Amino acid sequence: MQLTDEQFNLIKEQFKTLKDRSPFYAKKFEDIDLSDVQTQADFEKLPFSEKADLREAYPLGIQAVPDEEVVRIHSSSGTTGTPVIIPYTAQDVADWAEMFARCYRTAGITNKDRIQITPGYGLWTAGIGFQLGCERLGAMAIPMGPGNTEKQLQMMQDLHSTVITGTSSYALLLAEEISKRGLRDKLDLRKGVIGSERWGEKMRHRIENELGVEIFDIYGLTEIYGPGIGISCSEHHGMHIWSDYVYCEIVDPKTGDPVPDGEMGELVLTTLRKQGAPLIRYRTHDLTRIIPGDCACGLKHPRIDTLTGRTDDMVKVKGCNMFPAQIEEVIAFTDGASSEYQVMIEAIDGRDVLTVLFETPLEGEDKEKCEQELALLFKAKIGCTPEAKGVPMGELPRSVKKTKRIFDSRY
To answer: Locate the AMP-dependent synthetase/ligase domain: which residues (predicted)?
Structure first.
């Protein structure tokens, strides 16, 4: 991805005082004179930042402004290890609100919409980010937070919500309840803005069909503001990243070298305006690619493709490397398989045993044929043969947050 003059000027402006403001970067770049960074090649020689670095800086070692300029902190949603704490200045919050409002506008959402916000509030950036953008846009926020499905459906009807926001897992749970209760014709929903976890096409179509909405993928991570740094457009071919606030690189996950536009790799982000906790060449571990060329929607901001997974999502079974995206592709190609699945990996008598549970409305011989087809497709696309087991619709767990799908009990 080519750095534009405007982006590079913003980076060089940051670099003038970065080491003075940030003990974290003073240490990270102690042997580097940042004034020597004059070309894209120079920039690409700078060391990456990692989540491990931010954990080591806990609680506020990443802070690059005086305490009196920090108006808020957020923390990553991860459940393991030391949390990552990110401080925000008032300008950071305003910039985030502007980016998020831009996401809503890109999705065709206006100040006449009523936006039901189901992600969690608190230290997590999700709920408050969706609300920030909603208020900046001038739309009506309905700040429900997660869970309490009965109340969600009541408010959806009584307040005539037109936009639903949330994780794909919770959107599916709501869609299933709406279908079960025959509520679709009583709702005014027209758009869905979904983020925080990757999901397959089958799940997307189920949610769109059962809710009767057009769905937009929103992207973000706590370390880089939160959700709202990019979104899919009406073309639904990748997500535009707001390049006046964030610079994208795609690198080879093993070597760290840049890869050409169009090739898969790991997304690396640099903040261009962030004050409280600027990040330089931050490895997201998200696997994607830059989509070359201009988008038919007219937006000039670069696009990244739908995430295929994370570098730390990969599991190795029977000598085969697999990512959730590949499993979802197998599910998508299997006639009779619904969107929901779980993968169980166990070590039994010294060998790996792989079981794929998937929901299906089929029974008897039809279900057996579906199981055989899924196992054959799995072998053809991924390289190993699982035990495929069809289970009744609705049997696998649903979540109001992110759904865990791969369970590896070998270690």
So the answer is: 42-269
SS3 letters across the chain: CCCCHHHHHHHHHHHCCHHHHCHHHHHHCCCCCHHHCCCHHHHCCCCCECHHHHHHCCCCCCCCCCHHHEEEEEECCCCCCCCCEEEEEHHHHHHHHHHHHHHHHHCCCCCCCEEEECCCCCCCCHHHHHHHHHHHHCCEEEECCCCCHHHHHHHHHHCCCCEEEECHHHHHHHHHHHHHHCCHHHCCCCEEEECCCCCCHHHHHHHHHHHCCEEEEEEEECCEEEEEEEEECCCCCCEEECCCCEEEEEECCCCCCECCCCCCEEEEEEECCCCCCCCCCEEEEEEECEECCCCCCCCCCCEECCCCEECCCCEEECCEEECHHHHHHHHHHCCCCCCCEEEEEEEECCEEEEEEEEECCCCHHHHHHHHHHHHHHHHHHHCCCCEEEEECCCCCCCCCCCCCCEEECCC
167 and 278 co-located in one domain: yes
Same domain, 244 and 345: no
> Could you tell me the CATH number of the domain that includes residue 341?
3.30.300.30
The CATH number given to whatever domain includes residue 185 is 3.40.50.12780
Asked if residue 318 lies in contact with residue 386, where contact means CB atoms within 8 angstroms, the answer is no
Supply the range of the domain harboring residue 231: 89-310
Q: What is the rounded CA–CA span in Å between residue 4 and residue 138? A: 32
pTM over 0.85: no
Find all residues with CB under 8 Å of 151, minimum gap 6, and list them: 144
Residue 143 phi/psi, 5° resolution? -80, 75
The tokens describing 56, both together, are: 């080591």
- 358, 331 contact by CB (below 8 A): yes
49-88 pLDDT, tens digit per residue, is 999 999 999 999 999 999 999 999 999 855 556 889 999 9
Between CA 242 and CA 253, with CA 248 as vertex, the angle to 5 degrees is 145
294 and 342 inside one domain: no
pLDDT digits (tens, 9 = 90+) for 195-221: 866 667 878 888 898 899 999 999 999
Cα gap 394→391, rounded to integer Å: 9
Asked whether 192 and 212 are in contact (CB, 8 A), the reply is: no
